[in-house]
Amino acid sequence: PRSLVHVCALHSSSLSAPFQPFVSHILPRRSFFAGKVFATSSSSPVTCASMSSFQAASSCSIRSASSAPSEVAKASRGAKSLTIGDVSVRLQECTSPQNVPALDGTRSARHYDSLLQSEEMLHDLRWMLQKDRIGQDMLLLGGPGPLKRRLATRFCEMTRREAEFVSLSRDTTESDLKQRREIAAQSSFFVDQCVVRAATQGRVLVLEGLEKAERNILPLLNNLLENREMSLEDGRFLVAPERYDRLLEAYSRAELDQLGLVRVSPRFRVIALAMPVPPYQGNSLDPPLRSRFQGRNIFAPSLSTQLPLLSAIAPSVSRPLLTNVAALSQILALGGESASGSNKSELLSRPAEFPETGSFHVARALETFPNANVHSVLSAIYPYRTFHRDDPTRIQVVDSALRRLNLLNDTEAGPAGGYVAQEFLPPASSEFPPTKAIRWSHQSKRDASDLVTPVSCGNTPMGGKTSYVETESAQCTIDGMLMLHALDRDVCLLGSRGSGKTMLVQQFARLLDYPTETFPLHRDMSHRDLLQRRTTTNSGDTVWQPSPLVVAAREGRLAVLDNIDRLPTGLLSVIQSLIQDRELSLFDGSKLIPYDRWLRLQEEDGMTLQQLSDARVYPVHPSFRVVALGTPPRKNNPYLTSEVSQLFSFISLPNPSVHDQKGIVHSVFGDRQSSARSALERFLIESEHETESSLKLSLRQLVRVASKLQRTMEHSTDEEALLALGDLLHANLLSRFMPIPARKRLEEMIDRAGIMTSDRTMDAIPAATVTSASSETRPASTSKENSKLDHLVPDVLFYDHIPSQQVLMQEMEQDFELGEHLLLIGNQGVGKNKVADRFLQRLGHARQYIQLHRDTTVASLTVQQNVVDGKLVSSPSPLVIAAKEGHVLVIDEADKAPTEVVAVLKGLIDGDMLLPDGRRILSQDHLDRLRADSGSFGDCVPIHPNFRMVVLANRPGWPFLGNDFFGECGDFFACHVVDNPDADSEVELLHSYGPNVSLNIIRALAEAFSDLRRKAEEGVLSYPYSTREAVQLIKHLETYPGDTISDALENVFSFDAYDPFLKDHVIESLAKVGFRISRDHFLPSLAARQKVIDSRKNKLTMSYERSASTAKATGPKHGKIDDTNEPHVGGNTWAGGTGGRDTAGMGGKGGPYRLDVGNPIHQISDAEKRNISREIEESARKMGQEELKRRLEQIDMSEYENEAYDRFFNSVTTQVEQLRQILESLQSKSKERVWFRNQGTGDLDEAKLIEGVSGESNIYKRRAEEQDPFHGGPRAPRHGALKKRIRFVFDVSGSMYYFNRADQRLQRLLETAVLVMESFHGFDDKYDYSIVGHSGDSPEIDFVDYGQPPKNRKERLQILQQMMAHSQYCWSGDHTIEAAEKAVKEVVKEEADEYFVCLVSDANLRRYHIDPRELGHLLSADERVQGFAIFIASLWNDAERIRKEMPPGRAFVCLDTASIPSTFNAIMRSSILK
Questions:
Q1: Is there a contact between 1145 and 1137 (Cβ–Cβ < 8 Å)?
Q2: What CA–CA distance (Å, rounded) separates 1128 from 168?
Q3: What's 1428's DSSP letter?
Q4: Is 1274 helix (H, G, I), strand (E, B) or coil?
Q5: CA 457, CA 452: separation in Å to the nearest integer?
Q6: Strand, helix or coil for residue 45
Q7: Mind listing the pLDDT tens digit for each residue in 325-346?
Q8: β-strand pairing of 920-922 with 940-942
């Protein structure tokens, strides 16, 4: 009914117009309704007048594109009415011209002024006049881009309407829209926000990003939209103008004011801007809210509209080229329409999005740089190959479209399109804004005359040292940045971590004399943090302070948005008006407007500087630019949404070529040649085509390795230098904790490069290698200067005679002298903390200590904010104290904190770190630049030159499951692996802790622990036993010599008593060294403990005994079924309970059979289990057998078949349990809860302290399962909603059956299949696997299809029977090559998080003339797919020969039954589970 009222009102006001178009206003082609897109017929053209008559009839004539941009505003200033076609509105003079938006002065005015006067846009403006005339609110729907916002701006500009702009996000709260409480003079009061200001002062409220707001926020506008009424927090009430005027007939204005009634202006309108959901991401409109708007689809300009505009922008560019550019935007836009399949071309079935303004930017680039490579220009505006690097189909679609339009050039010209910046001409000293000129030459057109372009610049020349090394690719990137800068474009650099993005930005700023404002971004940021920060003055008044981005905009600096890939999805949209139009509304009510418009307010509107300042209207400095830094988007982090892609021009940093890397090496070594330098360069050649990033040195790591190698060569022989190079490579790439396949690949690469390596973890380091002064404690320099710091110098018990630890500390000291920050990484219990403390104790350095954890935030890491006497007071954290005072900051448990928290350490290392309280920690170089720019330091914390960090972290990966600190920011640190001591060192260390313990016992313990660690490295055991446990054992034996070795061992190994597999391996390792430990010591039962106690000669005089349960089993039964699946412990009622009696469950007694419903298991003792009568035991056993028979009948499986399956299953039971434990742990990690903010209850949010003081209620945070930000409900795991897709390819050829009698290869094959099916059972939400076979009959024999894993033992046995039968009856022959090729192609047919192919075969390749290198090439043909081959049988030495000829780490040889499952475990741990 409400929609019909709107239609009738509009129809009655425009009788000459046909009725059908008005229905489309209510039901637009893309509309929000139950989350779906509806397609309706397009609006028919307006027939009452031609477009020329529209323009002729306008009282406010709209000038042509050649007129000055401000002509529209000038014409409207003196006009009484505006007419477009048959719709006229009366114009009123505004009292606050600074609040009237305008396109003139914006960066794109030259493009959009003509566009908005086109026939298409005038149709939209006429519609908006219609809506305004009859008092209806509007909703403009369209794709990403500034067109909707600029259309609303032009509407306000033409009608001289004041406006309030609000950019919505998921962080937008009620106080951002209605009223916010502030504090002044120790009193709180409410300040009207945008909605209230617009309603009371008759402005147009522009709400941008309607689809991004949370569902419960926008409904507060419902009554204001419908009835123009709203209750306010300060007690006032907004009243519709008609009702207020009627009330004035009975009450005076003063009486109405006393009643708190406020009149809503009749000129108040709402223009909402939104993207349709779907196809775009966001929240669909709430039906009550949607029905209050009138909708209009806003489409990108058509080809016929674009061409005249492009010709005006680029008159010297050929018309056919401009036509093709415009056609490209239309073709890709056509592919993105939600039209029916019949209207789409097959080519564009999966199109990428082209920027809404892309064709204008391309035209201007080609006009300014006439010889530029067209494809290079397009790639900067529309970097589809980077955006869709994981989706070749999309890349092929766009490539095909470009090729058909002759826009695809096969020659690479770089981001500058072939242009090279040759010379910078200095700016005039008095010029404002400062401008330089760049002289360009073209690399392929030498005969062309040089080009000179002006560019904005800063006025702060940078001196001092620079880390920039001019390589070919780096200079090409700089040229591209300069070219885009000359085109007034903001730039986004995309590159992997350590690729040199920060260095390139610094060089770019240095060339243009730009002062920089670095803004480190992270996941915890809200939309407020991007713009302003709320704090208090010394008197307790609440104030807003600008963010670095706003400071840069006002001061004309280069804003560096670092880590945009870490921001929450959609958050960058709040700054799109600043990026695209240089205009921004801030939370404190102030506004930033373009500089030209700010001047016009003074020149044409007569406003003084004081008036503009009082109105809090400030100009954006014309030199202001933005450079964003991020990693290339991935499927698990597609942060470059369709909106973000509209904000910047992009440059994707290529992987450094060998030539570039050699240039970096040359910058360190100069012309000095050596065998070590040559070996390093050969290693760079080896790693050039390596797809695994962990095997390649980042630029930071390369500089560090080269610098240390150059230092080592000064006092070493060639052989010693080669050994040092090998150690440097292993340390910087952290090979010690690499997955086994990757480690093997690295070792082969190092070996082929001729580099020597040493293994200090296995062989004892001679004491002679340790310098005599290494263990001496030196006088503390800090202690001499200030004895009060003695308490900060660690004082730790440490035994200095361990050679491996002394060598480690020597290397740490060398890095300290080079100014490096240190990262100590290793397993638990290897002595990281002790080594760090002893190192600092020896050097006499004061230490600040901080321990990270799951709930550590950026704020808690840097400062602690508290409210004292109504004022916000910041207390420095140990990090700030250490940086300021020159102490050493020890950061412990770095892998436990969220990665976005530890990533802020990058800014501290780079010398520019932003604190949550607005201060900055700056290095001396940054302070010098700041002084040159502003003449003062401001509120900055200088970094002391002696400041260092020592970061401690556990190794990445299983079984620690912490965050990968090394992968995130490890290349910022000099990395040192802290490992368990070698055998001799460990014996010496243990003897230091237990001098009275027999040396034979100590050696035996050390040997046993070494064997257990070896099993952990091989993947047999999951727990990495460390020196810490061994030390604790020796301490016990030293303190209680009367206790047996079994008593002491139980302290460590009792954790493993509940796992029979682990228990057996522990007993085996102890037995090897002579410790004959009874299994009773490891049995988790009272009876076993009692047996041990009874065996002792000396009885204790006092003891505590745990009595067995008095509850008796009465009889077996299935038990009741709890539909809620709540855990039940004890009792005898519920099926699936644990630790109880009689019922089917786990860990109890007297039940008929086991029943696991997924709840935690509570195990009763074996003594209690035996405490049942023989009759009940027999009854339970009989009931269990009957249930087994019933279950077998249910799945049509006989007892014989069950026994047959057990023969395979029992061989891999242990490995299945191991792999399932890994999968379960990884799944629980992916479901880790996150913080929810703006809550009414929970923990106090430290970022909301000011809101709490001012009286707001939603100031808490609480942990919960991560929700989808737009659709609600549990969110997929943080690493992405897509599954990992795996294809197992088994060799079921005749040779498997034929040779099975000789080496049991078919038996091992079937056991491996059982391992796969049993391990992945129950993990369908994360992994999607298939099993196929190949033989002489076919390269693809389906056994298990994707999404259809076998459900029970019967189905799994049937698959084994099929595999065996096929191997027995298939024709001879081989299809290994074809099977590998088909598997790689098949696995990527559906979208997934990652892709894997595991091929299991014998090594019978030579017989069929198969080249192993061809097989390796096929398995690695698609860079998205990780392919592996496992050879389980071999004639002679074929398998080992094949492994060596295949790519390193891609092939494995398993010639015994037990090694196949462990090999699968290693592959899955290293690849699938990383």
A1: yes
A2: 47
A3: E
A4: strand
A5: 15
A6: coil
A7: 999 888 876 544 433 333 333 3
A8: parallel
The one-letter code for the residue type at 187 is S
3-class DSSP state of 871: strand
Handedness of CA 151, 152, 155, 158 (dihedral sign): negative
If we measure between CA atoms, which residue out of 70, 283, 83, 65 comes closest to residue 169?
Answer: 283
Structure tokens at 1146: 């786990």
| Lookup: tokens for 307 | 């061409």
Q: 215-272 pLDDT, tens per residue? A: 778 888 888 998 999 999 899 999 999 999 999 999 999 999 999 999 999 999 999 9
DSSP helix/strand/coil, 779: coil
**3-state secondary structure (DSSP) of residue 712:** helix
d(CA 198, CA 326): 39
Cross-strand partners of 651: 493
Dihedral over Cα of 740, 745, 748, 753: its sign: negative
Paired tokens of 768 = 């002679």
The shares of helix, strand and coil residues in the chain, as percent rounded to the nearest 5, are 45, 15, 40
Q: Which two tokens stand for residue 611?
A: 């008036």
- Cα separation of 704 and 431, whole Å? 43
Pairwise CA distance, residues 747 & 727, whole Å = 12
Spatial CB neighbours of 257, under 8 Å, sequence gap ≥ 6: none
Residues 372, 357: Cα–Cα separation, whole Å: 19
Q: Which of 692, 694, 564 has the alpha carbon at shortest distance from 640?
A: 564
Tell me how far apart the alpha carbons of residues 252 and 773 are, in angstroms, rounded to a whole number: 93
d(CA 1308, CA 1401): 11
pLDDT tens-digit map of 193-206: 999 999 999 999 99
Answer for the pair 561, 526: CB distance below 8 angstroms, yes or no.
Answer: no
1101-1135 per-position pLDDT tens digit: 553 344 445 555 666 776 777 766 677 776 677 77
Say what the pLDDT of residue 24 is: 39
Distances (CA, A) of 468 to 664, 668, 855: 10, 12, 37
Q: Which helix (H) or strand (E) holds 1343?
A: strand 1341-1344
The span from the CA of 519 to the CA of 1435, in Å, is 62
On whether the CB atoms of residues 903 and 522 are closer than 8 A, the answer is yes
Structure tokens at 1328: 């999607």
Give yes or no for a contact between 705 and 729, defined as CB atoms under 8 angstroms apart. yes
Residues in the chain: 1474
Which of 1472, 1428, 1474 has the alpha carbon at shortest distance from 1454? 1428
Other C-beta atoms closer than 10 Å to the C-beta of 854 total 13
What are the DSSP calls for 421-481, one per residue? Answer: EEEEEPPPTT-SS-EEEEEEEESS-TTSPPEEEEEE--S----S-------HHHHHHHHHH
Tokens standing for 1311? 């056991």
DSSP 8-state symbol, 72: H
pLDDT per residue as tens digits for the range 675-715: 999 999 999 998 887 777 788 888 888 988 998 898 888 88
For residues 1026, 1027, 1032, 1034, the Cα torsion angle rounded to the nearest 10 degrees is: 130
Q: Mind giving me the DSSP string for 1441-1464? A: HHHHHSPTTSEEE--STTHHHHHH
Residues 1408, 1339: Cα–Cα separation, whole Å: 14
Amino acid at position 942, single letter? P
C-alpha 806/C-alpha 766 separation (Å) is: 11
- The residue assigned the tokens 């001098």 is 995
Q: Is 542 helix (H, G, I), strand (E, B) or coil?
A: strand
- Cα distances (Å, whole numbers) of residue 330 to 324, 367, 374, 1313: 10, 21, 17, 51
Type of residue found at 619: P
Residue 1047 CB neighbour total at 10 angstroms: 15
- Is residue 1403 within a helix (H) or strand (E), and if so which, with residue range? none
What 3-state class would DSSP assign to 14? coil
Q: How many helices (H) and strands (E) does the chain have?
A: 59, 46
